[in-house]
Amino acid sequence: MRILFTASECFPLIKTGGLADVVGSLPPVLTGQGCDVRILIPGYREVMAKVANPRTVATIEDLFGSEATIRRADVGALSLLLLDAPHLFDRPGGPYTDDDKKDWPDNHRRFAALSMAAAMIARDGVDDWHPDIVHAHDWQAGLVPLYIKRLGADRPKTVFTIHNIAYQGNLPPSVLTELTLDSTEFTSDRLEYWGNISLLKAGILDADKVTTVSPTYAREIRTPQFGFGMEGVLNARSADLSGILNGIDETVWDPQADGQIAATYKRTQLKRRAENRHAVQDALGLERDPDAMLIAVISRLVHQKGLDILLETVPQIVARGGQLALLGSGDPGLEAGYRDAALQYPGRVGVRIGYDEELSHLIYAGADVMAIPSRFEPCGLTQLYALRYGAVPLVARTGGLEDTVIDANPAAMSARTATGFVFSPITAGELGFALERAFDLFADKPSWHMVQRRGMAQEVGWSLSAKSYMALYKGLLDTAS
């Protein structure tokens, strides 16, 4: 079974969020289950600089204004197809924004080109390789199913995965013809979305199957509260919509072999985490207090993540003798709020604005609690990394957080199945109550270690979910035959 992944990011080559981690970690597991997976991503300047001597396997004479080539390269266990289109991707800045964090004005052409390249590979193959299924990810690849559908009946099947429905690739109707779309496509039952074109809607409508990244999120996005206006479209496609939980790369995220932490350890060596705790405290200017419950946040600082309500609980955390370590960036108001908290509570609140992959590994290995108070969370990888490393997750009851964390209520504690703390509704008050429960359990070290060890034993890799994707793919091919 030959699968072409199409996405705008792939770790370790280019990453702005969890999409890259998924695209970089799922294909090797599928390969182990008998698939031949290749990953088509844009040849950003940063990507091309990291890949040595990629081999040209196809040339596109005119791809939205100039010639482009598709280059083949292997990076670790990943088989890559790089869309080398310098007029679209050879520039400074990030995948979507310039150095000033402003969206590139030609993003619609850039990602339509990625989708068009995927359709060309679907039609013609590349390097004597023809995909049976094309799996497109998020709005940047939203036109892939539409462009492939134009090929007629004799075409690969398509799967479209929604990683976060809040990001929809909305564009003015004036770019319709630029994207080789017909004016008849701009209707409410096709690509029109509140007066704009939606690339996300295109993917939802035209893919053979639609998935999202957790079972609970698949239900939530069919409601007005979480659907961001797409709930009607998703309900219309409910028979073809499923939620398959994300996993993590357990070779990259392994506390027994992680070269980016101060001390490696396994479930039976929880005392060794103290060395990592000290390293986190030193890195963020916190007191080396061995008795403090160290609460950590690794996140984008945006409204979705609920970090405004966590900020309200900082006095409570400090009053209970806890510490807070935050790594992230985003909304300037939230950045300023946490910086002010660090000034107000020196030695108890430590803040690093930005992102640091090595420091993130260390924080997972040293924190007692990982706080994730998201207002919505399609799946979340943070809680999965936390479980793997013995940092007890404290999460809002939503999306994949609900699907992956078992609350430490009396019944779960008695059954020895608890892995964290879950709160609802998502308010500062309820978060505060959850923190109280965490502080109380932290004082009972045998019970706390039981929760840590249970979390570290939980399956957080891709093995189960990869089987679900395999079943989805096989079902599509069986239908085709």
Please tell me what the overall shape is. globular
Number of domains: 2
- Outline the low-pLDDT stretches: none
Physical arrangement of strands within the biggest beta sheet: 3-4-5-2-1-6-7-11-12
CATH superfamily of the largest domain: Glycogen Phosphorylase B
| Class from helix and strand fractions | alpha/beta
Give the rounded overall mean pLDDT.
96
Relative strand content: 15-25%
SS elements, strand count: 18
* Rounded radius of gyration (Å): 23 Å
Main sheet record: 9 strands, mixed
> Which CATH class of the largest domain is shown?
Alpha Beta
What is the CATH topology assignment of the largest domain?
Rossmann fold
Distance between the termini: 14 Å
Number of distinct helices: 19
Helical amount: 25-40%
Which architecture name of the largest domain does CATH use? 3-Layer(aba) Sandwich
Oligomer: single chain
Detail the topology: elements first, then pairings.
Elements lengths: L1 E5 L11 H15 L3 E7 L2 H6 L4 E6 L7 E8 L2 E7 L1 H4 L17 H18 L8 E5 L6 H6 L7 E6 L7 E2 L20 E2 L2 E3 H8 L2 E4 L2 H6 L10 H6 L4 E3 L29 H11 L10 E8 L5 H6 L1 H6 L3 E8 L1 H13 L4 E5 L3 H10 L2 E4 L9 H8 L2 E5 L2 H6 L5 H6 L5 E3 L4 H15 L2 H13 L5 H18 L1
Parallel strand pairs: 1-2, 1-6, 2-5, 6-7, 7-11, 11-12, 13-14, 13-16, 14-15, 16-17, 17-18
Antiparallel strand pairs: 3-4, 4-5, 8-10, 9-10
Helix pairs in contact: 9-13, 14-18
Describe this protein's structure.
The chain is an alpha/beta fold. It folds into two domains: 2-247 and 463-480, Glycogen Phosphorylase B (Rossmann fold, 3-Layer(aba) Sandwich), CATH 3.40.50.2000; 267-457, Glycogen Phosphorylase B (Rossmann fold), CATH 3.40.50.2000. Helices cover 38% and strands 19% of the residues. It contains 19 helices and 18 strands. It has helices at residues 18-32, 45-50, 86-89, 107-124, 144-149, 199-206, 215-220, 231-236, 273-283, 307-312, 314-319, 332-344, 357-366, 382-389, 399-404, 410-415, 428-442, 445-457, 463-480; strands spanning 2-6, 36-42, 55-60, 68-75, 78-84, 133-137, 157-162, 170-171, 192-193, 196-198, 209-212, 241-243, 294-301, 323-330, 349-353, 369-372, 392-396, 421-423. A nine-stranded mixed β-sheet has the order 3-4-5-2-1-6-7-11-12, sandwiched between helices. Strands 15-14-13-16-17-18 form a six-stranded parallel β-sheet, with helices on both faces. The chain has a three-stranded antiparallel β-sheet with strand order 8-10-9. Helix 1 links the parallel strand 1 (2-6) and strand 2. Helix 9 (273-283) crosses helix 13 (357-366) and helix 14 (382-389) packs across helix 18. It is globular and about 65 Å long.
